[in-house]
Amino acid sequence: MADTIRRADYFHIHVADKPGEGARILGALKDSGVNLLSLTAFPDGKGTTQIDFVTESAEALAKAVKSLGLKLSDKKRAFLVQGDDRPGAAAQIFKKLADAGVNVHSANACAGGKGGFGMILWVKPEHYDKAAKALGI
Fold first, then answer.
1. Taking the CB of residue 47, how many other CB atoms lie within 10 A of it?
2. CA neighbor of 93 nearest in space, from 129, 54, 120
3. What's this model's pTM, rounded to 2 decimal places?
């Protein structure tokens, strides 16, 4: 299978950095039928954790987050990559962006079962369209 690269909207929330918050939030998303395409969580240095979500339905995500009394960020943009796992899979994507003079601001990738991999990557907003062109989308 060839790599599939697509534009992705993402949203984030900030939650207390304590045990159980992830389970509470993900449980509410599950109960609301929210299907996540990507999730990235990391401490933001303020005693809280930022959780980024890419989902099939922004509306369902917003409703679930609101039911928890949390504030969802404005829509932001990233790229979602899916393909066959192989040596250098991410390197090829990074090379395309480097050749176009686009810096990858952040990335998160993982090999999945059955030989697949996925990656979400972020570039600065002012470089988003240039990156999309370099990626052929």
1. 10
2. 120
3. 0.89
Beta-carbon contacts of residue 113 (< 8 Å; ≥ 6 apart): none
Burial of 23 (0-12, 13-18, 19+ CB in 10 A): exposed
Whole-angstrom Cα distance, residue 123 to residue 28? 30
pLDDT 10s digits, 117-134: 999 999 999 999 999 999
- How many Cβ atoms sit within 10 Å of the Cβ of residue 54? 20
Alpha helices per DSSP H over the chain? 21-31, 58-67, 89-99, 128-134
pLDDT tens track for 22-67: 999 999 999 999 999 999 999 998 899 999 999 999 999 999 999 9
